[in-house]
């Protein structure tokens, strides 16, 4: 199987702090890590390769420093890694990011499966995976928590929805996004780390991928971030206790009081 | 302190620390309480290539020496020395094979050991042979088709869990210690069974078990080295492995120092963190100095052993004795600094104090090793 795993470098914290004056993320003093959901994507890719043979290529769009993260993917079992980096890519929204990643996948030729994490911990949109599938004309399944079977150009996966599990059969090539339930990512191996230290990570630019400059980066973005802010939680909740009838009467009274019923 | 480790040594140390913090820390209290052998962690260590560290490159290892092994053991012990010793005992159980075994035996077993597919154990101790190893009674009688083993080994680390056992047994009773030989015995060989599994004060995640041999026939090719060399090989092995036991003690002491520092920085009494008390600072400083001195001695002894030097008895014994005494003192003081909390199982310190004790006892008790150091002193004096 020819597998591509898409990874994003994110600040290594779950508590993203925002500078209230500039409305930008405070990145100082925070180490960058592999977006946690993407490590599950990588692990699944490596496990599939171990089972079916083939190759796992890790890709990321980002600044030059993302090379460190891509080297780490080699220590975790990826065979190759490519960084998509170009000044023109800066400021990309989810659509422009998906367009760029899809461009890299096209350049690679015959790919059977593309695995993404379910969402990033900094942007949190969960849109890049599905957008990329659409652009590539590939089947798409989100929130995959188990790959049940892959054979004869088809795959059957289990996905986790709010209401329960769904079993989905789809064709290959496919794009999936995975949840944390899918596996337990391995630790790096010593031989992997040693290999990763000397690994060469190629950098592909706009030109290398033959992309349309109007469709990448800020230029290609349909959305603009106008403002980032921490919402103020000043709403108060009131718990109504007692027997159901009393609760209902009490709630109705409150709604009428507020002119809502 | 700067120990000028190579990039590769730093990588090994960092990876062992990562594994310990991510995989061992969450379960160490449970493993201790339940006396459970840490199989899932052994699997993680195998996947991370940690068992390759001490195996030569020709047999799919990474060709590290005593220093590399000590770095791994130190980092694992910083979190749980019960897990660390289960790893280190595999090195102990395979060194004799690596140093003296036939090419055929090495080809047969070392790749699986490097891959972490087979754990090893080393068995010298018997009920009549502790500090005085010459008291062993297990015999290996040369018969048609191999050797027939009879006898019982006790207190064997990894006993019951390991697949491969290096056994020291008498091939010629009349010659006493000069009649001992070493053998590789596989688990499952008919006539080889396991006796009592010990319940222990510390390192409770590790397995300590009796090995029972009743007319156990092992192939002739499973002898390691020449007949009669058993004791000499065992003594050489222990000289080489003692820095590793020192590293185990060092890791425990380092873990205890860090935990005591954390606790005393946060615990408020008399209106302020207790670390502000000069008495507390003085104790922490002494602990830190002792830990660093132990580290310096262990790394130096390990490097000396790796240099190929032959006279490593004294340096290895000194490193083991010093580090284990440091571990006992530092863990005791760490419990003290954490007061009542330190005494409770909700905190890791009482476990570290229990775990530290064994390092003063096994692979040569500190009393016996001190007399070995004294003997070297006398030899030096006689030469000068
Ligand atoms: C948890 C555990 C794991 C072990 N794992 C292994 C293993 O994997 N393989 C293996 O072969 N063995 C193993 N052992 C055995 C260990 O090496 C011995 O326990 C150790 O050598 C001490 O021997 P002993 O217990 O018989 O004590 P003894 O020899 O009976 O000694 C008792 C005390 O007397 C002191 N003493 C004895 N002789 C002298 C002397 N000449 N001068 C001064 N003081 C002396 C000792 O210091 C000690 O304090 C293990 C033991 C334990 C507890
Ligand atoms: C098994 C057990 C049974 C107990 N039973 C009882 C009981 O029946 N009734 C009861 O009331 N209590 C009981 N205790 C509580 C016990 O008395 C306290 O644990 C003890 O007073 C120490 O207090 P602490 O644990 O809060 O330690 P802390 O006061 O937090 O002190 C921690 C450490 O900091 C150091 N330290 C603290 N202050 C100073 C200072 N000013 N100068 C220098 N060093 C300092 C000490 O080394 C100390 O060991 C019990 C505790 C245990 C563990």
Please tell me about this protein's structure:
The complex is a heterodimer of chains A (261) and B (384). Chain A is an alpha/beta fold and 261 residues long. Chain A contains 8 helices and 13 strands. In chain A, the strands form 3 sheets. In chain A, strands 11-10-9-12-8-1-6-7-13 form a 9-stranded mixed β-sheet, with helices on both faces. Chain A has a two-stranded antiparallel sheet with strand order 2-5. Chain A has a two-stranded antiparallel sheet with strand order 3-4. The longest helix of chain A is centred in the N-terminal third of the chain and has 17 residues, at 36-52. By secondary structure, chain B is an alpha+beta fold. Chain B is built from 12 helices and 10 strands. In chain B, the strands form 3 sheets. In chain B, strands 1-4-5-8 form a 4-stranded mixed β-sheet. In chain B, strands 2-3-7-6 form a 4-stranded antiparallel β-sheet, covered by helices on one side. Chain B has a two-stranded antiparallel sheet with strand order 9-10. The chains are: A alpha/beta (261), B alpha+beta (384). Chain A binds chain B through residues 186-194, 197, and chain B through 7-8, 11-12, 15, 18-19, 22-23, 44, 47-50, 52-53, 62. Bound molecules: flavin-adenine dinucleotide (FAD) (2 copies). One flavin-adenine dinucleotide binds at residues 267, 269-270, 274, 277, 279-280, 336-337, 339-341, 343 of chain B.
